[in-house]
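[job 0412] stage=complex_fold ligand=pyridoxal-5'-phosphate status=START
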Amino acid sequence: MVDLKSQYLRHKTEIDSGIAEVIDSTAFINGPIVKEFQQNLSQYLDCKNVITCGNGTDALQIAMMALGLQAGDEVITTPFTFIATVEVVAVLGLNPVFVDVDAATFNIDVSQIEKAITPRTKAIVPVHLFGQPANMEEIMRIANQYNLAVIEDACQAIGAEYTFSSGETKKVGTIGTIGCTSFFPSKNLGCYGDGGAIFTNDDELALKMRGIVNHGMFTRYYHDMVGVNSRLDSIQAAVLNVKLNYLDSYNNARQRAAAFYNHAFAGNPHIEIPTALNGTTHVFHQYTLKLHDVNRAQLIKNMNDAGIPVMIYYPVPLHLQKAFAHLGFQRGDFPVAENLCESVISLPMHTELDEEQLVYITEHLLKNI
Ligand SMILES: *Cc1c(COP(=O)(O)O)cnc(C)c1O
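[job 0412] stage=complex_fold status=DONE, emitting structure tokens
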């Protein structure tokens, strides 16, 4: 699905020397490279504040803590995402409220958000799933009307851009109240371990989050609030500081591979290629197809037999996961998400796919469909 080794070899000299410098300095935690990376990412995103943390899951949790969400408050998101988005809602004692996804984009169906809002609703968490921006114009309109915070889960979409009807373009993660991302190795900007970051243009929230990531502490051993311990270590920052320079080229490589796939599958009645939206860039964290009238399990087996990995993101919608059984949802509650879980497949998608591999993958898929 990914080829992290070939990508590393392309930047080996730069990355190795970055890592060696950290080891030589012994500034393993909060070294100067962490600050440097935060500044570089803030410049790349055109966002005033970037706070790095331990991983994308923590980023979401810290965002919700900083907004002062209290047990019982409701948070709107979708059931078709990675569990982390909803896990942190549950961990904080908040109530997840699901809104089904749009069948074409896999992102939150904005036409169904308003009817999910109650007096206890405090935040909307749009997920830019698989690298495609959610409909932020409509989400921000609703959030402003109902005075809700927006926490963008941009864990799969760093570098993607969203253009408003006014013509203004922004990077995802910098549009809502707070944006969150993950630097898990296979993400579009991945480090060599765990890592994450939180973005905001709100200085007050930024200050609070800088405290929360570090035990609620601004002066050593004086704790102003309850926080967590969630840091990006200096070695990861050194890796990311090199790789950030290549993020746009990585995303372009993903888009080129996606264009190859799209071209190969266009017009096939059994395959629905990803929907392109005007005015947004899709950075293809995953390349995900919808299948029609195909024995998916057999197809996956045939592909695997030919040495081609194929994954299902995601096989079970969150409202039907055992972990959320206590919420009392049933099959049929979110039919679009349920249908997608039964009909999608994701093909290998990374920065190192060459034409020979793409031909091999597309030919095998078409032969087995
Ligand atoms: C990866 C991911 C996360 C969590 O990031 P980690 O760094 O693995 O904690 C959250 N949300 C989405 C949509 C993700 O893909």
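The chain has a mean pLDDT of 97.
[job 0412] exit 0
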